[in-house]
Specification:
Layout: E1 16-20, H1 27-34, E2 45-46, E3 49-50, H2 56-61, E4 64-67, H3 79-86, H4 93-106, H5 108-112, H6 123-135, E5 141-145, H7 153-168, E6 172-177, H8 180-186, E7 189-194, E8 197-203, H9 204-207, H10 211-217
Parallel strand pairs: 1-6, 1-7, 4-5, 5-6
Antiparallel strand pairs: 2-3, 7-8
Helix pairs in contact: 3-6
């Protein structure tokens, strides 16, 4: 059955845009459609190019990289090897090495655990590894699905700081979140999705003050 209905949104270069909504609203389905994993009707355009009909690897090759819900690391591989998997399509080895050191600079915890099996780390460390793996793909648009899921607030705050730093470097971020407070506090703009439809959109700081959003998602 169709899950998404007349979805319309845009993400501008070097923005951090949040897509918020309750569980089952269609957020992950939308990301899978953007990645080419799920077929859809309509039009998805990235930098002027139509994405509908492309295979997932073609979409990935254009620079749309997804950090999936639940991290989905290779648990029996080291942190270092997980990061290299993010760059498996890249051929410029010198640039890969530079990016690897850059990523370790962004996530010093991963540098300390580079030889540790990814599956043996804490949830927060695994989320860092999943985000670092995506960065190793040299993304133009990084799509992050439920970053805060199951993590302590202090870890979520650290990850939001990382997203702000990534955005300053020119990487565009689409953050999909159930935690509306977290998402809206760090985003430039945001959309609210309910039962497969976008019902609100605008500047994040305006939405966080919207009475409907406060009542439905913030318990106010």
């Amino acid at each position: 059955m169709p899950v998404l209905h007349e979805i319309s949104l845009d993400v501008r270069a070097a923005e951090l845009v949040a897509l918020v909504g309750s569980n089952g609203a269609g957020k992950t389905t939308l990301l899978r459609a953007l990645s080419g994993v799920l077929a859809c009707t309509g039009s998805i355009r990235f930098d002027g190019r139509e994405l509908v009909g492309l295979r997932p690897e073609q979409v990935f090759g254009l620079g749309l990289v997804q950090v999936p819900e639940g991290r989905q690391l290779f648990p029996r591989m080291s942190v270092h090897d997980n990061l290299l998997m993010g760059a498996y399509r890249r051929r410029e080895q010198a640039a890969v090495r530079r990016d690897l050191e850059r990523v370790y600079g962004i996530f010093p915890r991963l540098a300390e655990r580079r030889r540790q099996l990814a599956g043996s780390m804490s949830g927060g460390e695994q989320q860092m590894c999943a985000m670092a793996r995506a960065l190793m793909a040299a993304p133009r648009l990084m799509m992050i699905d439920e970053m805060s899921l199951g993590l302590a607030p202090v870890i979520v705050d650290q990850l939001m700081d990382v997203l702000a730093a990534i955005r300053r470097e020119g990487v565009t971020v689409l953050l999909v979140e159930q935690d509306v407070q977290v998402a809206l506090s760090g985003a430039d703009r945001a959309y609210v999705i309910e039962t497969g439809r976008v019902v609100l959109g605008g500047r994040a700081k305006d939405l966080i003050d919207d009475p409907a959003v406060q009542q439905a998602y913030l318990g106010l």
